[in-house]
């Protein structure tokens, strides 16, 4: 892991920037280079100390480690040329929220062994280099896909790194990952965005409605602050699974509506009680 | 406000218990009596110091102040006999989450002036006397309905109390309250319960799904820990408004599903961007 001298982070947003801050902390001898399509983000990231220097795609041959933290549709496009550009000893880790298409994109790439598909289950509703924070990944789950296709030595170094960052490791098939994550992450974002929309639409005619909002509403609608530029590609790449989870969610809401409409309060009660054990399931998550 | 010597709290749960704790703190000379249908809750509340003594309905004639904090359908039933039972100088404050039916229930009651209809926008997802915490109401909004029907002197004392508790006061028509609160509170609970249900159903077949849940899911699903015994009556009493908000929510989710299904990613993006300004609306709420 100490071999990671020159670290390049492609995409200096919430995830890439937070990763850069942590890498700098645990590998103080390394130099952190940032590459981003936004010049503003790059100069902001240098100013904030998130990265040491801004850099360019052409310099990737110098990299020992590359973190790919760009929108997931871009990751599918950029990962093959990134692998083309790096040296034989370098490791590329993609940290996007969908894993199927990015794994498929490099399945037969000659440098497939230099790639590790990862998804850190960590984040906030904020975005850009100013959202980058230290210790974002501590005690969080890191999902790794198709580790059998990554070079053993490079994988070992990556695992050392995740251990120093105090992450829990889970191994998954990339398409299982995408199916599951649609339920426990992607659907939450849609439910939150559409809840926000419903209340905002109502508020156009009812001016004092937000005076009445409490911490419950704030919690449920928090993810509606998330960046559409991040989330549109996620919904696109994971379309089938997201549609499946969304359809089930709408079915459940419609059932709840129907039993309430029918004054079946025993069933209204049961619907909630049967979900109450989410308490124990979520223990430890906050 | 110092005249509130004997304070009776009917319903020693999250809201009633927290109110009891705060009243004891700001009125240390007063005696706090609890009345509850659950003997367990009463002895628990005495043990925890939430109330000084457990008491009974028959003792209400001794009360200077009564806090009615029982499920909203029960409040409609119990408020008239509570008003019958109290002395001429006592004040009864109902703190339930729906206000229309409880106001209607005592509109022509001879002691209507002894009643104040209130809704503190405060709470957590927990319930029972153990959930009662101090300072729950500090910096929160207190909605008051039909204050013109409350005796001027009693209202003045109540206002002094809310000021000491550091609450913000808003005045509303009870039926407007119920319409608005359906959007900013009741709907959030349904969205959260049904999100929990959708994921739990999926998890029956997919054992490791919750390993993948992060803080975003936890936040969105937090309200699904709420007590069905509290929330079933709320949905019952506010049925028409809840159904209206739920129908609009389902319509918005279905529209999102349709544009995603049609690969209209510009519209998917716009749907999220148009809701993003919830950021500024929610400023200060957490």
So what's the overall shape of chain A? Answer: globular
Measured by residues with Cβ under 8 Å of the partner chain's Cβ, the largest interface is: A-B, 94 and 94 residues
Radius of gyration of chain A: 21 Å
- CATH fold annotation of the largest domain in chain A: Rossmann fold
Q: What is the averaged pLDDT score of chain A?
A: 94
The first-level CATH class of the largest domain in chain A is given as Alpha Beta
Largest sheet of chain A: 8 strands, mixed
How many beta-strand segments of chain A? Answer: 8
What is the CATH superfamily classification of the largest domain in chain A? NAD(P)-binding Rossmann-like Domain
Strand neighbour order, sheet with most strands of chain A: 3-2-1-4-5-6-7-8
- Counting copies of identical and different chains, the oligomeric state is homodimer
Gap between N and C termini of chain A, in Å?
31 Å
Order of helices and strands of chain A: EHEHEEHEHEEHEHHHHHH
Beta-strand content estimate of chain A: 5-15%
Low-confidence spans of chain A: none
**Structural class computed from helices and strand pairing of chain A:** alpha/beta
Our count of helices of chain A gives 11
What is the strand and helix layout of this fold?
2 copies of one chain form a homodimer.
Chain A (H helix, E strand, L loop, with lengths): L5 E5 L3 H13 L4 E5 L3 H9 L5 E2 L10 E4 L3 H14 L5 E4 L5 H6 L9 E6 L20 E5 L6 H13 L3 E5 L1 H30 L11 H7 L6 H10 L1 H23 L3 H9 L4 H4 L5
Parallel strand pairs in A: 1-2, 1-4, 2-3, 4-5, 5-6, 7-8
Antiparallel strand pairs in A: 6-7
Helix pairs in contact in A: 6-9
